[in-house]
Write a structure and sequence with these properties.
265 residues; mainly beta; Porin; 3 helices; DUF4595 domain-containing protein
Length: 265
């Protein structure tokens, strides 16, 4: 799942515009009134010591561009180029010092590379597209990069139906598969500015609708798939048909709960 990424990286670059669902690029229009995600509260139920709560807050400028994401351990500050595309994100530790930053390279309106730079290492992520949709990523965590980590996406309409990840590990590459089903309501991440959706990657951010189930499988030594986990999602919506609470269950046990709060700007 994207839980840890969501909390530590940004927990959402979310632009929710109820009036712009038909906009080809899903980009915020500064002249329109926008519904913006302002706060996400996540409760995890997997710790033996009891539930753990994490809160992420989002701040915007007058152009409805996301400027800052604040969590309990990290503050992320965004910069934009003259065309309004994200050019850099700087991640600050709780004490205010810089932990690392990321820069973004584009080819026209397509994000082609993400480069992470920190004191110890750097990595590059390159992206591939089919019919304008992100269909794959390749990430190198060293300059030599003998075995990049890859992610590939298969779509059914505007939703990712299957996500396959391959990463290096002990004994060789590890391959996992996620299979998704969806409701017919707007996923908060689907109305995020398209560049942030590409930056985040993953089915949760690239799909139009909300998960109802996620099945995770791994490939065994014989090359066959074996199911590892099965998640179900119970969703509550507001009057705008946007999710306000999502309860995630793993094999009928509480796994996580997401609560979303919005502002109009």
């Amino acid at each position: 799942m994207k839980n840890q990424l969501f909390i530590g990286l940004m927990s959402s670059f979310l632009f929710l515009n109820c009036s712009s669902n038909n906009d080809e690029n899903n980009e915020p229009n500064p002249s329109d009134s926008q519904i913006l995600l302002s706060k996400v509260t996540t409760v995890y139920y997997t710790s033996p010591s009891g539930p753990h709560t994490s809160i992420t807050k989002l701040d915007y400028n007058s152009q409805k561009q996301l400027l800052k994401i604040t969590s309990e351990t990290t503050t992320s500050v965004l910069e934009y180029d003259g065309a309004g595309k994200p050019s850099k994100i700087t991640y600050h530790k709780a004490d205010g010092t810089v932990a690392y930053y990321k820069t973004f390279t584009y080819n026209g309106d397509q994000l082609t590379m993400i480069k992470k730079i920190d004191p110890d290492t750097h990595y590059n992520t390159t992206m591939t597209y089919t019919n304008g949709k992100v269909t794959g990523t390749s990430t190198c965590e060293s300059s030599s990069c003998p075995i990049p980590s890859t992610m590939s996406y298969t779509y059914s309409g505007d939703n990712v139906s299957e996500e396959i990840s391959v990463s290096d590990g002990i004994g060789g590459p590890h391959t996992n598969k996620k299979e998704f089903s969806y409701d017919n309501k707007v996923n908060p991440y689907s109305l995020m500015g398209k560049y942030f959706r590409m930056i985040m990657g993953g089915a949760e951010f690239l799909s139009q609708n909300n998960y109802t189930t996620v099945k995770i499988s791994g490939k065994d030594g014989t090359g066959n798939w074996s199911q590892i986990m099965n998640f179900t999602y119970q969703i509550e919506y507001n009057s705008n048909q946007l999710p306000t609470q999502v309860m995630v269950k793993l094999d009928n046990n509480d796994y996580a709960k997401y609560t979303y709060e919005y502002i109009t700007q």
